[in-house]
Amino acid sequence: LLCPCLIYGAYVFLPFDAPLLPTISARLVYTLRCAAFATFPIVLGMIVTGISRLCSSALEPFGELQQEVEIHRTCVSQSIHLFILYFFNMAVLATYLPQELLKLIPLLTGLFAISRLTFWLSYAISRSFRAFGFSMTFLPLLAMLLWNLYGMFVLEPEGLLS
Questions:
Q1: pTM for this entry
Q2: Nearest Cα to 30, choosing from 93, 117, 115?
Q3: What single DSSP character describes residue 63?
Q4: Residue 94 lies in a domain
């Protein structure tokens, strides 16, 4: 319930609009530029993983990982997988959205970054709290996938493969 409320509140109250993007290629470039910001939690996680690996008390650098190193490594790995799915769905979504709804692309990017940081923090505190951060990432991804499938098969079935 929180994800749609956050997206709607940001859509209504944040004072920016998407630039005029009449072509599909312009929309894909816009999505690509927005997606660059979604890599922030992944890069930050890689840095923290490297630092925690350097500072860990393990004598063998390629041996078994400490729990604090494993937490960061797991979060980075999951974030990379989810980012790939999220980005591809956002790229397809950008091709189906009308111009006035293209403001959703940077909002969904921001939600992804905040959600992954929330997941990482909650996963580091206690593994039982990680469902909140994961659902804030996965449920918008699922909604985008369903909208994309609807757009491909119902709105524009003639342009499915062209």
A1: 0.84
A2: 93
A3: S
A4: yes
Q: Locate tokens 């709105």: which residue?
A: 155
Which tokens is 39 given? 């890599």
* Residue 7 covered by a domain: no
- Is the residue at 17 inside a domain? no
Note whether residue 93 is domain-resident: yes
Domain that holds residue 91: 23-160
For residue 126, with 0-12 CB atoms within 10 Å meaning exposed, 13-18 middle and 19 or more buried, which class applies?
exposed
Number of domains within the chain? 1
- Which pair of structure tokens corresponds to residue 14? 């944040």
Q: How many CA atoms lie within 13 A of 39 on its CB side?
A: 9
The CA distance from 9 to 31, in Å, is 21
> What stretches of 2-147 adopt beta strand conformation (E)?
none
Q: Distance between CA atoms of 30 and 21, rounded to whole angstroms?
A: 8
Please state, in angstroms and rounded to a whole number, the distance separating the CA atoms of residues 121 and 125.
6
pLDDT per residue, tens digit, the chain (162 aa), is 777 888 888 888 888 888 888 899 999 999 999 999 999 999 999 998 888 878 766 555 565 667 778 888 888 999 999 999 999 999 999 988 888 889 999 999 999 999 999 988 888 787 777 888 888 889 999 999 999 999 888 887 776 666
